[in-house]
Amino acid sequence: MKMRFLCGLMLVIALTALAFAQGVTAPALLKPPADAWLTYHGDYSGRRHSTLSQITQENVTQLRQVWRFQVGQQSIKGTPILVDGVIYVTTPDNLWAIDARTARELWHYTHPRNNAFHIGHRGVAVYKDLVYLTTPDAHLIAFNAKDGKIRWDVTIADSRRGYWSTNAPLVVGNHVMVGVSGDFDNLPGQLKSIDADTGKTQWIFYSTPPPGISEPASGGATGGQMWMTGTYDPELNLVYVGTGNPTPVLNGPVRPGDNPWTCSIVALNPDTGKLVWGFQVSPHDTHDWDAAEVPVLVDGDFNGTPRKMLMQASRNGYFFVLDRTNGKNLLTKPFAAVNWAKEIDKDGRPIPDPAKEPSRDGVLVAPDESGGTNYRSPSYDPTTGLFIVSAHDAYGIYFFKPEHGNYGWAGADYGVGGRGFLRALDYKTGSLVWEHPIGNGPGSAGVLTTSTGLAFTGDIPGNLMALRTSDGKTLWHAPIGRVGNAPITYQLDGKQFLVVGAGNSLYAYALP
Amino acid sequence: MRMRVRINVSISNLHREFARMLRDIAFSLRFQTVLLRMKRTIGIAATALLGLSCLVAAQGRGGQAPSPASQRPPQTATPQTFSPEEIRAGQARFSSQCGFCHGRDAAGGETGPDLTRSDIVAADLRGDKISPIVRNGRPEKGMPGFDLSAADLGAIVAFIHDQKAKADTLGGGRRSVDVSDLQTGNAEEGRKYFGGDGKCSTCHSATGDLAGIGNRFQGLALLQRMLNPGGSGRPAPVPPRVLVTLPSGEKIVGPLVSRDEFSITITDAQDARRTWQVGQAEWTIYDPLSQHFDLLGKYTDKDMHNVFAYLQSLR
C-alpha cells in the first residue's frame, strides 16, 4: 500500500515535470484550454470564436482596462499568444514575453538590424517549451519560452532577393509551417515546413514554379506568397492556406492564363507538403488581391446536407464556401463592391473581365488594391451561423503600359475612395444580414465573437467596440486607437480577459 | 426642418454672402434642391458664386497642386551631393523602413507616392523638408512617424535625392501616369454625360465652378479630383458642414473636423473647435461631395474618360 502510494506519487511528480518541460502539447493545440490562446487564430479552425461566457451583453459596459503594455513606436498588427500565464507579443524585429497578470516584461528579444521590409508582424507560434518567431529578414528563430534563450535560428528565404516575413507560423504535430512575402520582385511563392525540434527543413510547397523548373501551366507567373497563417483539419489531416497574388503584379499580358496556384486556397498534407486540392478564387489576378485571408473551417448544414466546409471572404470582394474534403465550390457571392468579374464559371470561380485589366488610360475597379477585405481576421459565430467580416467598398484606378516593365509591381494604381463596414453574412446564402459602418477607408481590426452573443472589433476612427452579434448594435466602446487585428480572450485565475493590440500598445480588459 | 434660402447678392462681397448663405441653408435639404432654389432666385450669379467660393476655399487651403506623377518632375531647387557610402546606407534603411509604401526605388509603392516626383523632395536641402516629415509622419495621409537616428535619417535623405537625380536623367518615373496616357476620351460625349446620365450639372457648371478647371488640374490629378475630390487622403476642397442642435434649441453650424459613431467635432463660427458626444446634441452632416463616391459604382470606363476629356477642355 505504502509502496503503491510512493510509486503513484513519483509518477505524479514525473508527469508534472514532463508537463512543465513539454509546455504546449499537441493535444492542447487540438483542444486549447480556457486559460490560454495558443495559436494565431485561437484554435485550428480559424473561427475566432470563444465559448467563454463571463462577459455578456448585459455586463459588457462594465469592462475596465486592467493593464496596458506599450511596445514602442511600431504598431501591433498581430495576435498575442498566451501560454502558462505568459503573453508573447511582437512587432517587426521584436518579441516580448510579458507576465499576463501584471503586464511586466519577463524578457525581450531584439533582432539584429536588417534591411528587409518592416511592414508588420502577426505574432509567434508555441509548441512544447519553444516559441517560434519569424523575422523581417526571413529567419525562423526558436526561443526557450522560459528565458528567451535562442535554441536555434534558421534562414527560411533569402531576404536579399526580396523575401521578407511577417508570418505567425502554424504548428501541426512536429511541423512548423512558415510563409514569406515578396511582392516587389518576381519570386516563387513558398511555404516551408520546419522540424519543430531541430529547425531542419522538412518540405517546401511552391505555389508557383521554383527557380529552374519550367511549368507551362503557370504562364510564367511568379508570386503566390503564403504570408498568412493557415488552418488545419485534424480528421482530414489537411492544412489550408491562402496564396497571394502573382507577380509581376499589374502586368497581366506577360503571364497569360490562370497563373495557378496564385490567389488560391490550397489544401496540403502537413506530413509531405503535397497539394491535395486547390481552388483559385482569382484566376489571372492583375489587382494585387491576395487570397491570403483566413480559410475558416466550419462543420454544418449546407442545403440540407451536413458538410465539412471552408469559408473565405477574399480580398477580391467575393465570399466563398467550399467543401473542404475536396475543394468543390458550394457558394460564391460578393460581400463588398465588385465590378471586375464578367461571370462566375461552372466551378464557382469569378472570371476576370479583360476590360478591367490595368490599362494605359486607366480603368476604374472595385475593390481597390487594399481589397474587399484583407488580413484582418473574420469570425464565425456558430449560434447565429453568421460570418462576420470587416469589408471595404472601394474603388481604385489601375494603370499598366509596357514602359512599366515586367518586374515587381509593373504598373501604377491609385485608391479613389472607400467606405468600411463590418458585415454579417448568412453562410448558407452569402446574403447580408446586417452591416455596421466603421468609417471611411479600409478597417484594420479583425473580429472576435463569443458564445454570449458579443462581437469585439474596432472602427477606423480608433474605437474598440463590442457589438451584439445578432444585429450589429454597439453595446460598448473604448477610444484606444486603431485596433491592429482581432482581439483575443481567455480566462485566467477564474476571470475572463479581453486582450487587444491598438496602435503601439497591448490592452487588457476585464470586469471589475 | 426646412428653412428658406435667403440670399441678398452684393457683387462686391460675393464670398462673404456665400458664407452667410451656407450658414443659413437648411441642411436637411438635398444639395440639388438648394441649388435649384438658388438658380430660381438668382440664376447664374449663384453658380458663379459657388464657383468662386470653391476656388477661394481651395486657395484658402493652400490650393491643390496637380499630382507630380502627371507632370514633368519638379526641378531640384538646390543641387546637392552625397557620398556613395551615405547613399548605400540610405538605400538599405529606405528599403526596410520606407520601401513598402514608397517602393524600394522611392518611385512609389502600395500606398505611398513617388518621391522622385515630389515637390517636397525637389525643395528639400539636405533633409530640411524631408526630415520633419519622416520624424513626425503625416497622420492625415496615413504615414506614421519614424524614430530614426540622425545618421539614418541623413542617409535616407541622401538616397531619396540620389534616386530623384537618377529618375530625372531617365525621364519619367517607372510607375508614372503621363497626361498623354489619358487622351482616349471624347469631350463631346463627356459633355453629354455631364448634363445627362452623370447628373454632374445638378451641382456643377462649366461656366461656374468648373470654368478653367483644365488649367488648374491636369492629367492624373484632374482624374482623381474628378472621381472623388476628397478621396484617399486628399483633403476635400469643401469640407462637409454640420448643423448641431443643442437641447436648448440653439443651432451651431460649422465645418466637420472629425466624427465617429459616438461623437462629432466641428469648428464653430468663431473658428473654435467643439466636440459633442451622442446624447449631448443632435447633428446633421451635409456632405454634397459624397455624391462623387456614389457615382463611382455607376461610371463605365468610357464615361470616366469622356468626362475627363470634357473637363480637360474647360480652359
Describe the protein's topology.
The complex is a heterodimer of chains A (about 500) and B (about 325).
Chain A: H1 2-22, H2 26-30, E1 49-50, E2 64-70, E3 81-83, E4 86-91, E5 94-99, E6 105-110, E7 125-127, E8 130-134, E9 139-144, E10 150-155, E11 170-172, E12 175-179, E13 190-195, E14 201-206, E15 222-223, E16 231-233, E17 238-242, E18 246-247, E19 264-268, E20 275-280, E21 296-302, E22 305-313, E23 318-323, E24 328-334, E25 341-344, E26 350-352, E27 363-365, E28 379-381, E29 386-399, E30 412-426, E31 432-440, E32 448-450, E33 454-458, E34 464-468, E35 474-478, E36 488-492, E37 495-502, E38 505-510
Parallel strand pairs in A: 1-32
Antiparallel strand pairs in A: 2-38, 3-4, 4-5, 5-6, 7-8, 8-9, 9-10, 11-12, 12-13, 13-14, 15-18, 16-17, 17-19, 19-20, 21-22, 22-23, 23-24, 25-26, 27-29, 28-29, 29-30, 30-31, 32-33, 33-34, 34-35, 36-37, 37-38
Chain B: H1 14-24, H2 31-42, H3 44-60, H4 84-97, H5 99-102, H6 119-123, H7 130-136, H8 150-170, H9 187-195, H10 213-216, H11 219-227, E1 241-245, E2 251-259, E3 263-267, E4 273-277, E5 282-286, H12 290-296, H13 301-313
Antiparallel strand pairs in B: 1-2, 1-5, 2-3, 3-4
Helix pairs in contact in B: 1-3, 2-3, 4-8, 9-13, 11-13
Give a description of the structure.
The complex is a heterodimer of chains A (512) and B (315). With 512 residues, chain A is mainly beta. Chain A has helices spanning 2-22, 26-30, and strands at residues 49-50, 64-70, 81-83, 86-91, 94-99, 105-110, 125-127, 130-134, 139-144, 150-155, 170-172, 175-179, 190-195, 201-206, 222-223, 231-233, 238-242, 246-247, 264-268, 275-280, 296-302, 305-313, 318-323, 328-334, 341-344, 350-352, 363-365, 379-381, 386-399, 412-426, 432-440, 448-450, 454-458, 464-468, 474-478, 488-492, 495-502, 505-510. In chain A, a hairpin with a 5-residue loop joins strand 5 (94-99) and strand 6. The radius of gyration of chain A is 22 Å and the shape is globular. The N and C termini of chain A lie far apart (49 Å). In chain A, 58% of the residues are buried. Residues 15-21 of chain A have low confidence and may be disordered. Chain B is of the alpha+beta class and 315 residues long. Chain B has 13 helices and five strands. In chain B, strands 4-3-2-1-5 form a five-stranded antiparallel sheet, with no helix packed on it. The longest helix of chain B is centred in the middle third of the chain and has 21 residues, at 150-170. The two termini of chain B are 40 Å apart. The interface between A and B is large, with 49 and 50 residues.
